[in-house]
Amino acid sequence: MTDRTETPSNRVLSDPIGTVRQSDRLVTTPGDWPLAYHTVRNMKPVQIAGIIERRLRHAVVPRLPVDFNARYERRVPDELSITPEPIRANLTKLRESLTEAERARYREAASEAANGRFTFLDRAIDFGDRIDWNHERIDEYPRLWRLKLESFQGFEWLVLSEESASTVDDHRAALERQAFEWDAANPIGEGPYLRRSWIPHAVSLRVLHWCRYAAWCAGDTVTVPDRLLRLVYKNALFLENHVEHDIGGNHLIENAVALVAAGVLFGDHDTGWESMGLDLLEEAARKQFLADGGHFERSPMYHITVLRRYATAYDLLSSNELSTTVIETTAELALGFLSQLIKPGGKIPLLNDSAYGEAIEATTCLAYCRACSLTPTERSLHHPDGTGYRTLSTDTGTLLFDVGDVGPTHLPAHSHNDQLSVLLWVDGDPVLADTGVYDYEANERRQYARSVAAHNTAQYGGIEPIPIGGSFLMGKRTSVSVVDDDPGRIEARHSRRSIAGTSYEHRRTVATIDSGWEIADTVTGDPAATYTVRYHFHPTTDVCESSDDATEFSVRRDGDRIASVRFSGTDRVRLTQTPYFEEYGREQFRAMIALKASTGSDVVTRFSADTVSG
């Protein structure tokens, strides 16, 4: 049966701007305690120690009779000299790699920021002449909004959009004033420690942005205010003492590249930051990158982010003749992975926590890496120790089959329940798409985006394969294994085993056929249970039933039929709409087909590419 009018439950959409604010779900929500247990159980000792240390610092430091801000200020040399040339040269490579659309977007955003208006996550605040760092709307918005504000992205937008510092005096003056006012209002050690202004991730980003800004100004014979240089140095000192070993992942890489940039900028001061950053990057290279070159968090968006940072670090460290062999090898493998991942359509797939408009464009990242003298080293996406993002291509398109783990067990923050999910492109255009991410707040949109129902796979009953909760919690992990991987055919299985709870197994085989692709699903478990197979289509497509056959549908784009899809093994077929989060804070709807079948029965789906107009 087909239902064209049904939309997703209002329960999924009931929290439009993060009004469900759960600051400490580990303590306040008993339903999440099992998730907290499994999340903590999979953590590494350094992570647990870091959490304890942060909580102690947060509780103790503001109460101590010590002026921590003054102590950091005293460690800044009275006379600061800078070496801007390497950073300016690297900045030029990055700017020239941007598309015209990206530069125009940055130019507009820089102008807005200089005038006190900031838009992040599709939410804006117009502060006017003076930023109110305690503005009530900031805390009504997702926490990522404040992090972006206090990262001072306006500086990066300006240096990436304008070649000359001397042509934008008004913008420079306004942004510098904002930084100085922030400095006066947010001393180290007052208020929440290691939170708000002094989250190390935010510190890393503003150190990098300010380093680039200082190099950009100095290279154009524009005076860099001594106060700004002192701010950069003080923030780098703070970061040196608060590297995010406990969080790891992409945060650690952001810490590292910021230290490298600060070390290069203040090269005459023997800070040791370059070596420290290099050590962190080498550690991350060993622990965070998989055999196919993909980043272990398995988010294409974050893969671009960390690859860009490795390219920057490689370029800056090479200019100072430091050993960069590990950095170069890692970056070139990551570059090869990205080159293969975007082949179907030229853009990243929105796997796990990914969205457009956050990282630079994939093609820009490739161009920037080439400008930094990096060349791609491609390893097969079918490597058994890789991300699990395997592809099956025909003359008309490409299907991506996710047969990997959802993410690192000790770091589930950006992982989704997407086991054995598929994506599809026909003639380079997306047909089946993942859901993306709305924001990182503990709200219902977040839960939906991470849920199995938001992905192109099978769900046993109403069970989440891995329980999810809060913003980043995940319960007991499940296992995914590849049974066969032959040219044109891949079979994999996903199992959930529980002594007291629900157990089942999902087997999926994907194969190329003459006209496209065939997907065969079998779920075994309780004989009385059912399972649902879902296919979410890209918003640019229209899906409609073909004639009177409720098991065959046509897929159209701009009025032309581009594909057809037929199902066998069930006549319980439903066409509805589901949310799609292509960018942070933005929601649209797209077609979704859901098939219901009895446990133990087989459901077969056949996608056929079709270029017939009509």
From TrEMBL:
Under SUPFAM superfamilies, the record lists: Chondroitin AC/alginate lyase
| Top-rank lineage group of the source organism | Archaea
Annotated Heparin-sulfate lyase N-terminal domain ranges read 108-358
Q: Where is the protein situated, by its record's location annotation?
A: Periplasm
Q: Which GO terms describe its cellular component?
A: periplasmic space
Heparinase II/III-like C-terminal domain location is 382-593
Q: Which InterPro entries match?
A: Chondroitin_lyas, Hepar_II_III_C, Hepar_II_III_N
A single Gene Ontology MF term assigned here is:
lyase activity
This protein's record includes keyword Endoplasmic reticulum: no
Key word Signal present: yes
Keywords per UniProt: Lyase, Periplasm, Signal
User: A Pfam family name for this chain?
Assistant: Hepar_II_III_N
Q: Which PANTHER family match?
A: HEPARIN-SULFATE LYASE (PTHR39210:SF1)
Which protein are we looking at?
Heparinase II/III family protein
The record lists the organism as Halobellus rarus
